[in-house]
Design a protein that fits this description.
Number of strands: 4
CATH superfamily: Glutaredoxin
Number of domains: 1
Distance between the termini: 34 Å
Number of helices: 9
Structural class: alpha+beta
Low-confidence stretches: none
Radius of gyration: 21 Å
Order of helices and strands: EHEHHHHHHHEEH
CATH topology: Glutaredoxin
Length: 237
């Protein structure tokens, strides 16, 4: 069964949601039969790739949401407490506001090598806990190597337009199925979970969608057994 996850590495709830889903998966008996695909999403694609004067995360949210800096800081403190509950130490005082497109391009390249989950983890940690600038070329190369890519693959991800296209393709696909915010988890293209829901919600949805998937497969097998068949020993009935 496949689970698709639309996410932006600048989204604090996406990292928390990743931890909730991982814990749910650890408690799920058939976890080895679950395929996970990370999908790109950009909460704010209008952030300039080159910024002459950096803003703090608090200033950025204050201006974007039209709230006071004090309100912005209070909101972030609430998120910090949520993150601590799943073992994450958010450092918004260090976070560097940056356009996430380049990171997503590298994630798309990593997915081709089966490193999608690793890429998400590296970029989440870099942004939320290490204060790394995800538009800095040297930083992107360091993180790409940490993911498991070589320099040639990182350069390819950042220069070949196919990887930007893959990012936009994910965003458009998400829009078609109703993704309006992230994280957004899609189970077997039947059920969706929006946001960093409690672990129990993920477990329930995993069990429901997986059992329905198994029922469908059993039904197809029963139908296939109704016809005449030949066995490997050459006997036909």
């Amino acid at each position: 069964m496949k689970v698709e996850i639309w996410s932006d590495i600048m989204c604090p709830f996406c990292y928390i949601g990743k931890r909730h889903f991982e814990e749910a998966l650890n408690r799920f008996d058939a976890k080895d039969r679950i395929e996970i695909e990370w999908k790109s999403y950009q909460l704010d694609p209008e952030i300039p790739e080159e910024i002459s004067k950096r803003k703090t995360v608090y200033q950025y949210l204050s201006e974007r949401k039209g709230i006071s800096p004090e309100q912005s800081e209070q909101l972030h403190q609430h998120v910090i407490k949520m993150a601590r509950q799943v073992g994450l130490e958010y450092r918004f005082d260090l976070a560097v506001v940056a356009n996430s497109l380049k990171a997503h391009r590298i994630i798309q390249r990593a997915k081709e090598l089966g490193l999608g989950d690793r890429a998400e983890e590296v970029f989440f940690k870099a942004y939320f806990t290490q204060g790394r600038d995800l538009n800095d070329a040297e930083t992107l190369e360091d993180l790409g190597i940490l993911i498991g890519l070589n320099k040639s693959q990182i350069d390819e991800a950042l220069t070949d337009d196919v990887y930007a296209y893959k990012v936009y393709q994910d965003i458009q696909e998400g829009s078609r199925i109703g993704v309006r915010g992230v994280p957004f988890f899609v189970f077997d293209r039947k059920y969706g979970i929006s946001g960093a829901q409690p672990i129990e919600v993920f477990i329930e949805t995993l069990e429901k969608s997986f059992s329905e998937r198994e029922e469908e497969l059993r039904g197809k097998t029963e139908m296939a057994q109704d016809g005449d068949v030949c066995s490997v020993d050459g006997q036909c009935e």
